[in-house]
Amino acid sequence: MKFLSLFTRLGLLALGFILVAIVNDDSVWSKTTESSPSTSGLADSLLNEWGLGLMVLGLLMAMAMMGAAYLVRDERMENLLWEFGGEEE
Q1: Cα separation, 57 vs 64, whole angstroms
Q2: For residues 32 and 26, what is the distance between their CA atoms, to the nearest angstrom?
Q3: Distance (Å, rounded) from C-alpha 67 to C-alpha 62?
Q4: Burial letters 5-31, b for 16+ CB under 10 A, else e
Q5: DSSP character for 46?
Q6: Is 7 inside any structural domain?
Q7: What is the mean pLDDT of residues 59-84?
Q8: Is 56 within a domain?
Q9: How many separate domains does the chain show?
Q10: 27-71: per-residue pLDDT in tens?
Q11: Residue 20 above 70 pLDDT?
């Protein structure tokens, strides 16, 4: 198990080095574009091209938040009695 963990960490480190090398490459940044991006173009693409994906992502995030709220609840008897002001019988 320790070998697998070490192998995974080394793989992630190598992936990080590769990504940094690719992003820092001159050919990536030397290309010029005819039009600069605008906020209205971003809004248009998010609402028209990525609308379904954003809805699915929002649903997944909402489900994760509801699950986290459920898991955080503490339902031990002494906490329930203190919360509702009851007496232990």
Answers
A1: 11
A2: 12
A3: 9
A4: eeeeeeeeeeeeeeeeeeeeeeeeeee
A5: I
A6: no
A7: 84
A8: yes
A9: 1
A10: 777 777 777 778 988 888 888 888 898 899 999 999 999 999 888
A11: yes
Residue range(s) defining the domain that contains residue 80: 51-89
Structural domain contains residue 84: yes
- 26 inside domain: no
- Confidence class for position 88, pLDDT limits 50, 70, 90: low
C-alpha–C-alpha distance, residues 51 and 57, integer Å: 10
> What pTM value is reported for the model?
0.43
DSSP 85: T
CA 42 from centre of chain: 20
CA–CA distance, 84 with 87 (Å, rounded to integer): 9
State the Rg of the chain over Cα.
Answer: 25
Question: Span 13-29, mean pLDDT?
Answer: 89
